[in-house]
């Protein structure tokens, strides 16, 4: 019975009067249908636009040294240009050579880096995610199992052996050292902190049998130098640079090399001025037309510098706001029949 006498105008502020007419009741109807309702047109712009502005501003506050030539060149030390300090190293490189080739790349910072600085190395045109490369590893060998070390898994074929000697995986083994040049011209070495996880050094990677004498442990193994560092605790498989074994998804990628930690709140981590990057050139890339580079940047709670996320949020919020205004105008001034009642 209640449904048969329902009039839609009562919910819009109108009440019925004797004789069949209606009058406008200014008083709000105490109904749950009259409570404020959050809609997509109001919530989405209010969320996306402020969030996008915050992400964009925060991203721009992150400092990143890009060097000359744009984002992908950064501190490029491939050594293919005639003006490159690493030209001789790239042209004279030989796997059989025991002589290390070094080159120095000068650069300057126009603004100081205040917080912790992350040093990355980058490679281009290197397909580390290739199926054969991903499968060509023996986790038992990397975990220090003597049996796997001498007899690698068949998954490592056809590169499991060379001249009947087992091949141990190679890593990106360029050595990078950073120096600050003070106003007097003195070179001051910047300390670089390791980045390997504790599980990398104590669980995932281990030296064969825990043998402290790595000379005998790796004797007769092909294509691997266990003396990767002057620090005896950072050699063999227990090495910071084995982060290389985490497969990159794209042919152009960057991997963390070291961290430059801030010492105090008074002096910047990297002050404004001149620097020199000393590179020990051990990893050739010219054979596959690759390039090598170094990146210096800071990070925030949202990660590395990336303005695109903030721009995407602002764009989506603006589109939602624009569509909301269009729909509001249509709702306000469009053709609408206010006199239709629900039939009995």
Task: Describe what this molecule looks like in 3D.
There is one protein chain. The protein is of the alpha+beta class and about 350 residues long. It has a domain at about 70-300. The chain has nine helices and 13 strands. The strands form four sheets. Strands 3, 4, 6, 11 and 13 form a five-stranded antiparallel beta sheet that branches. Strands 5-12-9-10 form a four-stranded antiparallel beta sheet. A hairpin with a 5-residue loop joins β9 and β10 (about 185-190). The protein is extended. About 20% of the residues are buried. It is a multi-pass membrane protein. Belongs to the CDC50/LEM3 family. One of its GO terms (cellular component) is apical plasma membrane.
Question: How would you describe this structure in keywords?
Answer:
4-stranded antiparallel beta sheet; 5-stranded antiparallel beta sheet; alpha+beta; 9 helices; Cell cycle control protein; 344 residues
């Amino acid at each position: 019975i209640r449904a048969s006498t329902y009039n839609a105008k009562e919910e819009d502020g109108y009440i019925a009067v004797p004789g069949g007419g209606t009058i406008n009741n200014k008083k709000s109807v105490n109904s749950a249908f009259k409570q404020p309702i959050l809609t997509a047109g109001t919530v989405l712009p209010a969320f996306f636009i402020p969030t996008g502005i915050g992400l964009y501003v925060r991203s721009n506050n992150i400092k990143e040294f890009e060097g000359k030539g744009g984002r992908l060149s950064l501190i490029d030390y491939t050594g293919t240009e005639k003006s490159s300090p690493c030209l001789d190293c790239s042209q004279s490189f030989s796997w059989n050579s025991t002589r290390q080739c070094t080159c120095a790349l000068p650069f300057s910072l126009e603004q100081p880096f205040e917080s912790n600085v992350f040093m990355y190395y980058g490679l281009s045109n290197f397909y580390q995610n290739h199926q054969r490369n991903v499968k060509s590893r023996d986790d038992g060998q990397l975990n220090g199992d003597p049996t796997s070390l001498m007899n690698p898994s068949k998954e490592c074929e056809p590169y499991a052996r060379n001249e009947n000697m087992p091949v141990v995986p190679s890593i990106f083994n360029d050595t990078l050292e950073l120096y600050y040049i003070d106003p007097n011209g003195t070179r001051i070495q910047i300390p670089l902190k390791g980045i390997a996880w504790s599980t990398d050094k104590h669980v995932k990677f281990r030296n064969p049998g825990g043998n402290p004498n790595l000379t005998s442990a790796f004797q007769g193994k092909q294509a691997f130098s266990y003396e990767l560092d002057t620090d005896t605790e950072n050699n063999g498989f227990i090495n910071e640079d084995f982060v290389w074994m985490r497969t990159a998804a794209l042919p152009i990628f960057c991997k963390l090399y070291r961290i430059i930690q801030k010492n105090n709140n008074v002096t910047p981590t990297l002050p404004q001025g001149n620097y020199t990057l000393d590179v020990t050139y051990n990893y050739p890339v010219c054979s596959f037309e690759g390039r090598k580079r170094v990146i210096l940047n800071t990070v925030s709670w949202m990660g590395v510098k990336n303005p695109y996320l903030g721009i995407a949020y602002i764009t989506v919020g603006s589109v939602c706001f624009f569509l909301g205004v269009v729909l509001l105008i249509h709702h306000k001034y469009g053709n609408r029949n206010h006199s239709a009642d629900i039939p009995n």
